[in-house]
Design brief:
The complex is a heterodimer of chains A (about 110) and B (about 110). In chain A, about 0% of the residues lie in helices and about 50% in strands. By secondary structure, chain A is mainly beta. Chain A starts with a strand and ends with a strand. Chain B has about 110 residues and is an all-beta fold. The chains are: A mainly beta (about 110), B mainly beta (about 110). Chains A and B meet through β10 of A and β5, β9 and β10 of B.
């Protein structure tokens, strides 16, 4: 049973570029949440997708957008990259959008913006 | 406002017991989670409390007092592999049920 998988594992971009990160949820899960984790910080919630719609959103600008596909996989897109976007981006999957859902995290994508 | 407070760092000795505290202030409450995160790895679920009291799961236990906005994670018979960051997260019922995360407590277990 594959857990949550994310790609790529590492990425280097320059300011102003755009990036797309991908996530496949754990088998049987239909909800995907994206988090940004800066070094030494706790995860910061970006948004959650359920039934191919954005259900919740954290305090992130519109440069951060996402998508969920019919197979429940998801993408996180970040436009006009800033140096401050450098972080570990974590994808977490769960079953259903109602709490208490236990989150299963992927290993993350380490994004470096130069 | 929303706030989760945890100690930044703790150290303990192998075989000992350590208690990691978490206090929270949220507009609502719909459960508290503890996650473990080893350096360079993803967080993994440890425990969930929604009612007051102690939840025991092997060497790990988690306690909740909703009236005090307080929780702790108790780790017994510490092992070297328990060296990790421990994240407290609260689901805020008043904020569209979002998970609010603490900054994590970095625990170092020494031999």
């Amino acid at each position: 049973d594959a857990g949550v998988t994310q790609s790529p594992t590492h990425l280097i971009k320059t300011r102003g570029q755009q990036v797309t990160l991908r996530c496949s949820p754990k088998s049987g899960h239909d909800t995907v949440s994206w988090y940004q984790q800066a070094l030494g910080q706790g995860p910061q919630f970006i948004f959650q997708y359920y039934e191919e719609e954005e259900r919740q959103r954290g305090n992130f600008p519109d440069r951060f957008s996402g998508h969920q596909f019919p197979n429940y996989s998801s993408e996180l897109n970040v436009n006009a990259l800033l140096l401050g976007d450098s972080a570990l981006y974590l994808c977490a999957s769960s079953r259903g959008a109602e709490p208490p859902e236990k989150l299963f995290f992927g290993s993350g994508t380490q994004l470096s913006v130069l | 406002g929303q706030n989760i407070d945890q100690p930044t760092e703790m150290t303990a000795t192998e075989g000992a017991i350590v208690q990691i505290n978490c206090t929270y202030q949220t507009s609502g409450f719909n459960g508290l989670f503890w996650y473990q995160q080893h350096a360079g790895e993803a967080p993994t679920f440890l425990s969930y409390n929604v009612l007051d009291g102690l939840e025991e799961k092997g060497r790990f236990s988690s306690f909740l007092s909703r009236s005090k906005g307080y929780s702790y994670l108790l780790l017994k018979e510490l092992q070297m592999k328990d060296s990790a960051s421990y994240l407290c997260a609260v689901r805020d019922a008043g904020n569209n049920r979002k998970l609010i995360w603490g900054l994590g407590t970095s625990l170092a277990v020494n031999p």
